[in-house]
Structure formats: C-alpha cells, structure tokens
Amino acid sequence: MGMRLEPLPQARHMPIEQHQNRAHSQSLGMRLRSTLAPRQFEAELDALLPLVQQSDLVIGNQLAYAGALACRVAGRRWVFSAASPLVIPSRHDAPFWPYLYPWQQRAARLGLSQRMFLPLARLATRVLMQSQVRLYRRFGIPLPGHPRFEGMYSTALNLLMTSPELAPTQSDWPQGALATGFAWFDPPFLGGDDQEQAIVAFATAGPRPIVFAPGGSTRGDPGTFFEQSVTAARSSGRRAIIVAAKKFHGQFAPHADILVTGYFPYARLFRHAALVVHSGGIGALGWAARFGVPSLLVPSEWDQFDNARRAECIGLGRVLDIGNYTGANIAAAIRTIEGDDRIAKGLSRIAPILNAEDGARVACDAIEGLLEQSAA
User: Fold this and answer.
1) How much is the pLDDT for 106?
2) β-strands 77-82, 157-160: how paired?
3) What pLDDT is attached to residue 12?
4) Any idea what the Cα angle at residue 258 is, between residues 255 and 263, rounded to 5°?
5) Class of the CATH domain delimited by 32-184+358-375
6) What are the boundaries of the region Disordered (predicted)?
7) CATH 3.40.50.2000: which residues of the chain?
C-alpha cells in the first residue's frame, strides 16, 4: 500500500514561502506583544523583586527581561545565561538575524558584510523596548546600554551554554562571557518504553533512516513540511522517521518504510539516523553533531538562521531555504550532503569533542567561583 498524506487546510491554496512568511509574522507579532508589552514587563518585575531581594545571586536568560533590572534595583548579583550564540552577537562573527534573513542572503551574494545588520538589529529592538527604558528611568538606574543586549548582560558572568566549536570566544563579547560547551539533557518526560521499542525496531530493520524533526513554530504549524518530507523519502527510496505531534498522525497512511512518531528525546532518536532534517535549533544541532550525524537545516525563525550558518561553516551539514522545501529539493540536498567529504570530516572531528563537553559542570563551577568571590 502506498503512502498518502493529506495536505493541511492552511496550505492547500498557498505557496510554501507565502504560508511560512504569514505564519512566522503572526507568531513574531504575538510573541513580541506578549513579551514586551509594558504591563507584562511591569508585572514580571513586581513578581521578581521580592524573590530577588531574598537571593544572593540570580540566574536568568534572554527571556527574563525584567531579571537584570530587578537585580539592579535590589542590589543583587545577576548571571546571564543564553542557549544560542545569537544572543551574544559579535561584529567579528556577524550573525544572521531572524526576519532579516532574506536581506542577508542578498547582501552575501553581493559581497557585502553581514556587520551592516548589527546596528539595524539594535535599532529595531531598542524601539520595541521603550517600556524597559522608561522603567529604568523611573527607578533612577542608569541603563548600561541597549536594553536587549548590554542591559541584559551581567557585569560578572555571562554563560553561553553551547559549544565553543560553534561559538568561538570573541574580543567584543561582554565581560565574563564563557562558552561552556553543551549541557546535555535527556528529558525523562518525553516518550515511553513502547515508543522507544517501536523506534529501535524500525531503525534496526533496514538501512539507517532519515529523521525529519521540525522545530520551532513549524511543529504546530507545519504547512507542507510533512507532505514534502514524505515525497522526498519515497522519491529517493529512503526509509524515514517523521516526528510529528499526535494531532497530525491521522494524515499519514501506513507504509513499511516510514515510521511516524511523537516527540522523543533526541539523545535516543538521532543515534539511529543516517541524516537529520531539522529547523536548526541549537539542541537538535548539538545532538545530531554529537552522534556524527549530518544535518539538513531548514531554518524558519529566531536563532535558527544563525545556528544553521555556523553549522554549515564548520561542516556539520547544509542549509535549505524554507521557501524551497520541496520533495525534489530535499532529496537533492540529502544526496549532496551524503556525498560531501567536507561534512564527513567535519563531523568526524567534532563528534568526540562534543561528546566530552559537560557544559552544566563548567557553568556550575563558574557560578560557585562567583559565589566564593562574593563571600570573600
């Protein structure tokens, strides 16, 4: 029996790129409104202040917008922690910014420097964060710089919880910046024994499969991602594991060479893959590279564009534009990756390095050292 996948209603009469752009614009707008709204920021600050005042040290990430201000108000130490390199950009290793990505690609083809986009990104985000600027003024606290960058950074310790292989130390990083290496975490709340048995049985029943694992907003709003992934697998005669939310499983008809599964820890899924097709999230990229598995990166939002750029530069895989995500293009990209000696060498070099990283230990040692300094 052949494999059949019913197209999603949202994608029936809309080109892939148009659908993705509309979905991502809506997603960006909703997130910015909820995260940066003045009332939301003030409510976050009100909730944090009593907790911060009882603390010796506070650790927060790029989503804890009020954390740094709360620590400055209360006179407590603040440690900034980031998961992806985009959060601590450098003009010496200019990143790819979300939603400016098409412009950056055109600039790259024209030979222009990506550095030109850093001031633009700073300007755009500063305009969005005027409510934070007003709160700093209300409390009489000098803003140390841009509220999204210097305003979030610590004067003592800034942890970048990723591999220095992906994000080498830069001279213009904030004071106390440290790339810790990956902090590997295998979530016990995902999947179960039955799911793992099904995955292992399928993976070992033939040649290693291609794993299609969408990330970010593509998980909940996949457009034609699943349809095109199935087309690519079937047209190239490859076995495949497709990771999809359960609400989408009814779209797939049974097929001997395709397993549709729910979300499952990448630590136990990617080890069975010949290649992983994913959005370029820093976690998916790290796990794939740790197992020496090449990536076909299909970024669509936030830090995914920059992560994909870094991965391609050091030979962990190749990038396919989301607007070109069709069965034929996917199959062609997979063939190119699997025949690329540079990628094979890059993964062979980096896999043992990542396997030895213990970002959690490095971060804890740095935090304990900071506490010891404070005590002294």
Assistant:
1) 62
2) parallel
3) 35
4) 125
5) alpha beta
6) 1-24
7) 32-184+358-375, 193-356
Question: 272: buried, middle or exposed (CB in 10 Å: 19+, 13-18, 0-12)?
Answer: middle
Q: How many of the other CB atoms lie within 10 Å of CB of 179?
A: 25
According to DSSP, residue 20 is labeled H
Q: Is the dihedral of CA 217, 301, 181, 363 positive or negative?
A: negative
Asked whether the beta carbons of 267 and 203 are under 8 A apart, the reply is: no
Rounded CA-CA distance 275/212 in Å is 9
pLDDT at 117: 77
SS3 assignment, position 212: strand
pLDDT score, position 20 = 44
**Rounded Cα distance, 286 and 67, in Å:** 28
Contacts of 376 (CB under 8 A, 6+ apart): none
| Structural tokens at position 208 | 């290693």
Q: What is the residue-wise DSSP string for 66-100?
A: THHHHHHHHT-EEEEEESSGGGS-BTTBPPPPTT-
Question: Which helix (H) or strand (E) segment is 138 a member of?
Answer: helix 130-138
List, in order, residues 6 or more apart from 344 with CB less than 8 Å away.
294
Alpha carbons 90 and 53: distance in angstroms, whole number: 33
CA distance 319 to 305: 9
Mean pLDDT of each 10-residue bin along the chain, 376 residues long: 36 39 47 58 88 93 86 93 92 82 63 72 77 85 86 94 96 94 87 89 96 86 88 94 90 87 93 96 96 96 92 95 93 96 97 97 96 81
What is the secondary structure of 111-131 as a DSSP string? T--GGGHHHHHHHHHHHHTHH
pLDDT at 64: 80
CATH topology of domain 193-356: Rossmann fold (3.40.50)
